[in-house]
Amino acid sequence: MKTRIIMSTLILTISFSCTHFVLASEGRNWDPVASDKLIKLPANIIEKRIQQDFEASPMALHIIDLEQQMQDKLSQLKSLRELMTDSEGDDLINQRFELVQQKSAYLDLMQQAQNLRQNALSKKQGVYETVLGKLRNKNGRISQSDVFQLKQKQAEARQRMQKVLAQVDNGLMHSGLDQRSPYADEFALNLAKVEDLKNAISEHKANASPTLGDVEVTSEEYVRQLLMQASTEQSLLDQEALMFSYMAKLVALDAQALEYEISYGDENTELTQRNRTKPAEVADLFL
Amino acid sequence: MKTILIITTIASLLSTPAFANSLFSLENLERERAALLSAQLDSSLDLNQRQKKVQSIYRRLVDIERMVLRDDRVTSSNSPLAQNAFDKYELTFLVHSSAEKKLPPLSHWMSELHLTTANILSAKPGHR
């Protein structure tokens, strides 16, 4: 009777956990924030910073702990299976019962880890979306600002001036002003050095644009790619969740089969019918 | 900690000094251009004097115009003076824009202000 009650409770628990994933994340949270400091980092460093932050969080530590527990549970399951090959009778029933219990406990751990991963991923997506929004805002604000417009005008004016530099210098020569001014001399001297310094800056690895494959991309593109990766991970996690639900269903079916077996015997057990006296067999006695 | 200190020091070196007048070069340009036009229109000077004076101002203007166009502080200030200067390239950068049109600076300035001989001759003196 006691076994039946335990079995029924077990089946109910497993069936319930097939459809409901309960997140026990009290005190194991990760709350990343897309701060202004984060936005200022190069896009590839943003990714690393977020990952680093996650790895140091109580949530990530709990996932590692769950993984360890799952490994332990797996080795228990394996040894139990080996033990079952040599057992029979009541021992076998007890071991099968324990196997179902262990499988159920393993799935619970798996679900917890899965839920934490889903949660972490959705938070990561949230951060990336905020970063992307802030990057777009920043670019939009800069391109619409008065200073930006003025700088554009200055750049255009500079280009325009560049075209007539030689002409103006020739004009000075024709006017008898063939000696260059100290400003022009010094500027020309510094210009080559400035170009060298600019080249050194553009080639510096700390100033390199983020790359995807071998192609240089903007920060915005890089973050968009990170969002794409996050949705790929999301889709794979969804698929894994489906696998867990099927595994849980199988354990529930195992438990149900075991319960039926304990209560009604296995499927090879034939129904025994009590002997009953048939009238035809005794009819002769009355003749 | 050391790294933060170094980065802060470098950042302070990179930033523009707060005391610098961001419109200094543009104000110089405005003064020199005004001086050039004054010298061109100064009737008290004879031809030789005017040519000498104009040449020396012209020479300075060439440099100052280039300085203004290369000076990022001018545009960072976003002042009306800077806005106006870049809105009216033809008048602000008189030496370089006149070279584009292959005109002497004074003729270019007058044509930009639509001061033609016919207009001047048809003008009547009076109070505004």
Could you please describe the fold and organization of this structure?
The complex is a heterodimer of chains A (287) and B (128). Chain A has one domain (1-267). Chain A starts with a helix and ends in a 5-residue tail after the last helix. In chain A, strands 1-2 form a two-stranded antiparallel ribbon. Chain A contains nine helices and two strands; from the N terminus they run H-H-H-H-H-H-H-E-E-H-H. In chain A, helix 4 runs antiparallel to helix 5. In chain A, a hairpin with a 2-residue loop joins strand 1 and strand 2 (215-216). With 287 residues, chain A is mainly alpha-helical. Chain B is mainly α. Chain B has one domain (21-122). In chain B, 74% of the residues lie in helices and 0% in strands. Chain B has helices spanning 2-14, 24-41, 47-70, 72-77, 80-87, 89-92, 94-101, 105-112, 117-122. Residues 8-19 of chain B have low confidence and may be disordered. The A-B interface holds A 146-147, 150-151, 153-154, 157-158, 160-161, 163-165, 167-169, 171-172, 175-177, 181, 183-184, 187 and B 55, 58-60, 62-63, 65-67, 69-70, 72, 74-76, 78, 82-83, 86-87, 89, 93, 95-97, 99-100.
Kindly provide the radius of gyration of chain B, computed on alpha-carbon positions and rounded to a whole number of angstroms. 20 Å
Q: How many domains, in number, for the residues of chain B?
A: 1
Largest sheet properties of chain A:
2 strands, antiparallel
| Contiguous runs where pLDDT drops below 50 for at least 5 residues of chain A | 14-25
Mean pLDDT of chain A: 82
The tally of beta strands of chain A, per DSSP, is 2
Helix fraction of chain B by DSSP (H/I, runs of at least 4):
over 70%
Average of per-residue pLDDT values of chain B: 83
Assembly of the depicted chains:
heterodimer
The arrangement of helices and strands of chain B along the chain is HHHHHHHHH
- SS content category of chain A: mainly alpha
Number of helices of chain A: 9
Low-pLDDT sequence parts of chain B = 8-19
Strand content of chain B: under 5%
